[in-house]
């Protein structure tokens, strides 16, 4: 019997979103979180060949910086995990070398942001290099984590149970995440995370909504939030299928 669950966007942008998922267990919620961080492959620079580096930084330091530049990741099936894409950079000072100065051999793999600083070059300094980007997973190296901030909290239901007793001073009641108030989903940032701001003079009760979790997902630009979540779910499905087939052998 297949479990039914509901998914709803509370807040939605290209790289950041809050997503409410109902009908899942804490174990499944944590599995999705781990899959977004560790199992979804992204492109990142793996090796660098320096033609000239007369900057104040060692080759190894610059290679590390290049490896941490987020790159757009093509749709599934476009690249295998042993394929490479070459990016080149050639900047002469006085100037700052940015991620946008990287020139890719493939239009599908580009710097996700153009304004990531790599090195400031003074007069007569130059950075010229070639880099190979590969497809790999966050469980092998953090530079391949497409989710830079992934977490979840219980959805919490708030109910007004009455007025505060007369002459009782209201106290701050801090809560973070998303609340459900009479069916309405409200991010706590809308009332500065303090329930006394939303319900002045009222006494309220809070309870966790069973098997309902709000995910906060932010990507590095490798791909949109929806794709990161979808690929994570697909990876769990594949592993579950592999386990099922192995058990039936």
Unreliable residue runs: none
Strand order of the largest sheet: 1-2-12-9-10-11
Number of domains: 2
CATH architecture of the largest domain: 2-Layer Sandwich
Which fold name is given in CATH as the topology of the largest domain?
Answer: Gyrase A, domain 2
Helical amount among residues, as a percent range? 10-25%
The best one-word shape is flat
Number of helices: 4
- Determine the CATH superfamily of the largest domain: RNA polymerase, RBP11-like subunit
Number of DSSP E strands: 12
End-to-end gap: 22 Å
Overall SS class: alpha+beta
What is the strand content? 35-45%
Task: Indicate the CATH class of the largest domain.
Answer: Alpha Beta
Radius of gyration based on Cα positions: 24 Å
Mean pLDDT across all amino acids:
89
Helices and strands, in order, run as EEHEHEEEEEEEEHEH
Describe the main β-sheet briefly. Answer: 6 strands, mixed
Subunit structure: Part of the RNA polymerase complex.
InterPro entries: DNA-dir_RNA_pol_30-40kDasu_CS (IPR001514), DNA-dir_RNA_pol_insert (IPR011262), DNA-dir_RNA_pol_RpoA/D/Rpb3 (IPR011263), RBP11-like (IPR036603), RNAP_Rpo3/Rpb3/RPAC1 (IPR022842), RNApol_insert_sf (IPR036643), Rpo3/RPB3_RNA_Pol_subunit (IPR050518)
GO molecular function: DNA binding; DNA-directed RNA polymerase activity; protein dimerization activity
Keywords: Cytoplasm, DNA-directed RNA polymerase, Nucleotidyltransferase, Transcription, Transferase
